[in-house]
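Bench notes, afternoon.
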Amino acid sequence: MKGAHLQRLNGRVAIVTGAASGIGAATAHRLANEQATVLLTDISDGEPLADSLREMGANAVFMHQDVIRLAAHRLSRCCLK
């Protein structure tokens, strides 16, 4: 985590959905490397990734969340009456 270009997100918060694996996990790593505070969300367990990011000095929190279900619920309340 050295270099000015790797600190460009210092003081910023990033929310990464689907963060437990794949592209979401890679995105979370990249954001953490650039000093962002990262909120990880997924329907799968992302706590191991959050632990790993914290071990490397990042600010990371995992929250179990199904964003598809949340979006569908919100759409049904506002737009599908």
